[in-house]
Design goal:
The strands form 3 sheets. The chain has a 4-stranded mixed sheet with strand order 3-2-5-4, sandwiched between helices. Strands 1-6 form a two-stranded parallel ribbon. The longest helix is centred in the C-terminal third of the chain and has 15 residues. It contains 7 helices and 8 strands; from the N terminus they run H-E-E-E-H-E-E-H-E-H-E-H-H-E-H. The protein has one domain: Rossmann fold (3-Layer(aba) Sandwich). It is an alpha/beta fold.
Length: 179
């Protein structure tokens, strides 16, 4: 969905996606530096200790870490881009604390049943993993009021139009900078 938003014909704003870092193994077809920065647990821990992350956490109870490298954000902002972070709720809450002027959008499937359907269609996760993801999603849905906006992704082109419209309100005054 975010990749569609980034296409200039779908949204003419100067958007760029921050590539997250993770300790999980790449899935087939994923490319280091494009889909994620795939780091060893030791390298991730070193960078975490060196405060190189804007936000990071262990997610979904699988022992793998995910995070946003500060350099991804500062480089994008320095280039005049609006940096999109595609992150979980825990990470978003950390970013909101550090940069309360950022635009936050809670994007979700509309219901836990729809999320479960989509996860099962992907066929990339075990039953235990699906159940953990649903438990996390249930807790996260309760935090929607902490975000400025909520978008239900029933249809990708419609969700892209809605997000672009929301962001376009800030075209004269770009959304945020990190401190």
């Amino acid at each position: 969905m975010v990749r569609e938003l980034l296409k200039r014909e779908n949204c003419p704003l100067p958007l760029v996606l921050s590539v997250s870092a993770t300790t999980r193994q790449p899935r087939p077809g994923e490319i280091d530096g494009v889909n994620y920065f795939f780091l060893s647990h030791d390298e991730f821990a070193r960078r975490r200790t060196a405060s190189e992350f804007l936000e990071c956490s262990e997610v979904f109870g699988r022992g793998d870490w995910y995070g946003t490298l500060q350099s991804q954000v500062t480089t994008g902002l320095a280039a005049g881009k609006w940096v999109i972070l595609e992150i979980d709720v825990e990470g978003a809450l950390t970013v909101m604390e550090r940069s309360p002027d950022c635009i936050t959008i809670f994007l979700h499937s509309g219901s836990l049943a729809e999320l479960e359907r989509r996860l099962r269609l992907r066929n990339t996760e075990s039953e235990a993993s699906i159940q953990r993801r649903l438990e996390v999603a249930q807790r996260e849905l309760a935090l929607i009021p902490r975000y400025r906006y909520e978008v239900v992704n029933r249809d990708i082109p419609e969700a892209v139009r809605e997000i672009c419209s929301l962001l376009s309100q800030y075209a004269k005054d770009p959304p945020c900078s990190t401190h």
